Amino acid sequence: MKVFIIGLGGVTNGGKTTLAKRLSKQLPNCSILCQDDFFKPESEVEVDERGFKQYDVLDALYMEEMVRTIHSWMKNPTDSSVSITESKSTHKSLKSTEDIHILIAEGFLLYNYEPLNEVWDRRYFLTIPYEECKRRRSTRVYQPADPPGYFDGHVWPMYLKHKREMEENTNNIVYLDGTKSEEDLFSHVYNDIVQELETWKNFGMTF
Ligand SMILES: Nc1ncnc2c1ncn2[C@@H]1O[C@H](COP(=O)(O)OP(=O)(O)OP(=O)(O)O)[C@@H](O)[C@H]1O
Ligand SMILES: NC(=O)c1ccc[n+]([C@@H]2O[C@H](CO)[C@@H](O)[C@H]2O)c1
């Protein structure tokens, strides 16, 4: 049995969830893990002097638990007690002849947490420009909802800071232009993954 772990990182509202769901429908034995499921409850999230809840930082997340969940999945990818969503679609276009299990971890802060650096077989990062991000974000309602000034005062500056840190510390990131159509993004990433899996085969991996 072989496991393949895909990181699908990137800016808030970049289209990570949309792309992950689409990929999981076409890839064999594919599950999705959402970093957003590891947010701490509101009462445990720090508040700054402006009253902004500090959601867009690693401290707002139970990252150790996220790492534990990924490690449990790696040890036993078919164990349904691990809180990961497996795609039930029967219309997988890529059939796995041998036993390969794929995990797509999607989230806005995947590559800034050292203990996770070792797990990725492929790292993607979705970007969209400031204006588009602000527009998409304004159509979403989080719990708690963004207060006035939150995007410009917290979300975007934290995104830029983390992206800069990621670029200083991480190699092999495949950047994706999130303004492309859902179809374009899907086919680009899908083909890239299939090619990567083929390379494994050529190097004698059995799956
Ligand atoms: N390729 C695309 N082109 C245009 N709009 C898109 C595209 N993909 C997703 N969207 C839209 O952008 C918004 C955010 O998408 P999605 O929830 O997939 O992003 P996300 O990166 O998972 O966001 P977050 O992690 O902040 O919740 C949704 O309204 C979605 O319909
Ligand atoms: N899921 C949550 O608990 C929550 C609460 C408030 C804000 N957010 C936002 O989610 C985004 C990541 O997907 C971040 O930009 C958070 O601001 C999440």
Give structural notes.
The chain is of the alpha/beta class and 207 residues long. The chain has one domain (2-202): Rossmann fold (3-Layer(aba) Sandwich), CATH 3.40.50.300. It is built from five helices and six strands. It has helices spanning 16-26, 63-75, 130-138, 150-169, 182-202, and strands at residues 2-10, 30-34, 85-86, 100-107, 122-127, 173-177. A six-stranded mixed sheet has the order 3-2-4-1-5-6, with helices on both faces. Helix 1 crosses helix 5 (182-202). The protein is globular. The protein starts with a strand and ends in a 5-residue tail after the last helix. The protein binds adenosine-5'-triphosphate and Nicotinamide riboside (NNR). Adenosine-5'-triphosphate is lined by residues 12-18, 108, 136, 181-182, 185. This is Nicotinamide riboside kinase 1. InterPro entries: P-loop_NTPase. GO terms for molecular function: ATP binding; metal ion binding; nicotinate riboside kinase activity; ribosylnicotinamide kinase activity. It catalyses: beta-nicotinamide D-riboside + ATP = beta-nicotinamide D-ribonucleotide + ADP + H(+); beta-D-ribosylnicotinate + ATP = nicotinate beta-D-ribonucleotide + ADP + H(+). Pathway: Cofactor biosynthesis; NAD(+) biosynthesis.
